[in-house]
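A common beginner's mistake is to predict each chain separately and then try to dock the pieces by hand. The better habit, illustrated here, is to supply every component at once so that their relative placement is modeled jointly.
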Amino acid sequence: MKRNSAAFWIAMALFLAAMFLMTQVVSNEYPFFAGYVILQFIVLAVSWSILGGYAGYVNFGTNAFFGVGIYTAVFLTKATGASLAVQIAVAASVGALLGLGVGLLTLRMQGIFFSIATIALSIVIETSVTNWRYVGGAAGIQLQRPPALDMFHSYLQMLFFVQAMLAVLAIATSRYIQRSWIGHGLQALRDDELAAECTGVPTLRLKLLACVVSGALMCAAGAPGAMYLQYADPSSAFNLNYSVTVLAMALIGGTAHWIGPVVGAIVLGVTQQLLAVTISSEVNVLVLGVMLVLFVVAAPEGILGLVRRVSGNRGEGRG
Amino acid sequence: MAADAQAPLLRISGLTKRFGGFTALDNVSVDIRPGERLGLIGPNGSGKTTLINCISGAFRTEAKTIVFRDEDITRLTPHLRTRRGIARSFQIPRPFRSMTVAENLMVALDFAAANEAHATAAQRRDTMMSILTRMGLASKADVSAIRLSQVELRKMELARAMATHPKLLISDEAMAGLSSSEVDEVLDLLMSLADQNITIIMIEHIMQAVMRFSDRVMCLDAGKVIAIGAPNEVMANQRVQEAYLGT
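With all components supplied together, the output reads:
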């Protein structure tokens, strides 16, 4: 267990070091442009999985959280000119509150009803933002990037590194939750909520916690997106594609273990970036759909389940 | 029974539960003494499981109708009642399907049985193994819960309930659908638990089991208590026979 943890933290430190080194030696902007998107999807898929995987509450409103993250940043930039760190911190707080709201939905709704309610939520928020003139309304808003910190050559490289740090934060959080009593309680309530409650698991509190953490991380992942594109408009910020893609990444990777969504996000994210430069970004949706169907039919437990089945030690792999 | 001077472990007084226009429980009152083995019988639909759901907290009830160890528990959520010492098994077993037998029990030990004796993870694992051994499930500890046979599932439900360290254990038809030798097996288990001073309410349709097990039997019909007392008396009761056999 302890050795595992040391290995994990060393891997995370090496990853961050490698990402930082990349910003120092690679001068071509494209790898950062594409890498940012993949990192962003890692954060989204990992945080989605905290609620959707561990607790089994399928949130279709990833786009709501992502969009709220973007628009929190837009609002702060316009109103106060706040720094990127402040934008992310405030977005995380707003996301936590939004997560709490979604968590209260779980009081009465389970399964498909919860999922539908989260779609409704994203539509309500998108409509509100579309009608909010101050942040540009339906036409969207242009943003000016401030100068980057001295150690980075460009703002894009800085955003890339920031998103890498968010990915480490999300992965560490998800890993901690899975291995702690919180994760065991969530697993119990996913299997059977009444039985969990009657076995002493505070199901409501755990669900709320999962919603808050998941929401905060998703909004935080969205916040740098405003400066990444230097532009925001409601229909792209709240695009339902985010929800579908993130869900597909988590399911294709496997939701039983924290590494599943990471693998899923890397595999699908890289595939999408390759397709976007070789064929067209329109093909992405098709490929996503086909892969999702293939996995649901052939490997319902995702890449993770596939690997376990092949290596023949199913039921292990905790930690 | 001479133990009337003792304070009841569980006091149910004037408990009524309605679903729309249907009265599932009608003014039910009963005191259950510490260490007692109470058999709860009644025809299908008489309100037995509803009563269990009210006690364990799945259903809300009027204030002060359920008092456990001198505390009104009607406003407590099920998990808080479990932590106070009320455990239950389910009529249709509800295992945590993605977990092994051992992990099923660990949920109970991690969340409900927090006390000095279970401070460390190692202590909790020891308790888990000793419960499994007592239940005859030690060899199944690392087996996935979905691979268990029906009788093993029933035992695991009881084991998981035991792992919450209960003062009151409610067994909801733990023997339904089992063969007669399996019934004896589960009954012996329940008897051995009762010997450790755990109060047990047993819902059961198998009469030999009820007769052998119970200190007292309570019979419900259409939400009302129609008889309560020594097993023989209740069985001989005219209204109980009518309820079971039809007039």
